[in-house]
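Figure 3 (text version): structure tokens given as input.
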């Protein structure tokens, strides 16, 4: 009896853990697609809107969503068969391809088409210019990560050598960067939302520029699947992409307050007003892709940014790692 109670307690704990790490959206008679997302972010609003508005259910997709927290974990989940689809930065597909993968990860639909970070100043600046960064202490993102690569690219575009013209700090863990700035480290910091807007609301810092606007279009966050899965389940991925496209168009057409209400349940302890502020900022600068099709020029811009930072292992042709047929079928 004692052993049985212990087993029941263990089983209940396991159920709780699994319910926290993974969510299922859909019905029992639908086709299942397991998705691993690299993080949970308002940056991904069109995807969550497609879920909340029932677009995946309409397309016969039972979506199992797991947040895997980090690019390495997300790609491990995809490549090991723990997920069918990964939502992650397109640069990861290049890293996998460079390792001569026999079953490479192929990008088939984009979600965001710009960088999602902002430059936050400690002091309120009435007329900011990039020249203001020279000689300052700049709290950047982790070396080798896409945000840092974009950050350095934008600095170079504005005639700033990131390693000579300012005191660049990039040895702080991603999760600790906001608290480091709030505690007094740095004159400027590169932050994701909603932290950038939250700091501005609280008077901790002031948003003075957008790295997404400055760097141009890139396939910043995409849905990818292994080539073998695309070969075997193309129709499922077409249905998936059709649902995603409905979400993209819905977000593009709806007022930010409506979008915020639709996705706020995906973000515990985040006020709907803050969600609306962030959605508005991303919508106004065109960060949310309104089409799932990855464009060739965006792919080339991605590789340029990686190359400038010394992180591009090899040049990869657009056609080698981007599947256009799925998105084109949906858009026809």
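Below: residues designed for each position.
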């Amino acid at each position: 009896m004692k052993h049985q109670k212990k087993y029941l307690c263990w089983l209940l704990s396991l159920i709780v853990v699994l319910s926290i790490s993974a969510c299922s959206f859909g019905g029992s008679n639908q086709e299942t697609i397991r998705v691993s997302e690299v993080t949970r972010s308002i940056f991904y609003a069109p995807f969550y809107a497609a879920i909340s508005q029932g677009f995946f259910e309409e397309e016969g997709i039972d979506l199992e969503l797991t947040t895997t927290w980090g690019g390495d974990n997300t790609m491990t989940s995809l490549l090991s068969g723990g997920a069918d689809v990964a939502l992650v930065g397109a640069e990861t597909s290049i890293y996998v391809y460079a390792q001569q993968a026999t079953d490479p990860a192929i990008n088939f639909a984009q979600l965001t088409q710009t960088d999602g970070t902002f430059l936050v100043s400690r002091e309120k600046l009435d007329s900011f210019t990039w020249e203001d960064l020279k000689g300052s202490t700049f709290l950047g993102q982790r070396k080798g990560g896409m945000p840092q690569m974009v950050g350095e690219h934008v600095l170079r575009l504005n005639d700033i050598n990131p390693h000579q013209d300012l005191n660049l700090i990039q040895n702080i863990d991603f999760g600790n960067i906001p608290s480091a700035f709030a505690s007094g480290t740095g004159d400027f910091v590169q932050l994701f939302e909603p932290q950038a807007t939250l700091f501005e609301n609280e008077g901790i810092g002031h948003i003075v520029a957008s790295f997404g606007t400055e760097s141009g279009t890139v396939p910043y966050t995409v849905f990818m699947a292994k080539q073998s899965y695309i070969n075997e389940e193309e129709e499922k991925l077409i249905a998936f992409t059709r649902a995603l496209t409905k979400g993209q168009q819905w977000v593009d057409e709806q007022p930010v307050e409506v979008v915020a209400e639709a996705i706020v349940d995906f973000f515990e302890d985040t006020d709907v007003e803050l969600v609306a502020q962030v959605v508005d900022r991303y919508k106004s600068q065109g960060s949310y892709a309104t089409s799932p099709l990855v464009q060739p020029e965006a792919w080339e811009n991605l590789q340029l940014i990686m190359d400038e930072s010394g992180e591009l292992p090899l040049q990869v042709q657009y056609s080698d790692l981007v599947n256009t047929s799925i998105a084109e079928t949906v858009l026809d």
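Residues 94 and 188 are 31 Å apart (CA to CA).
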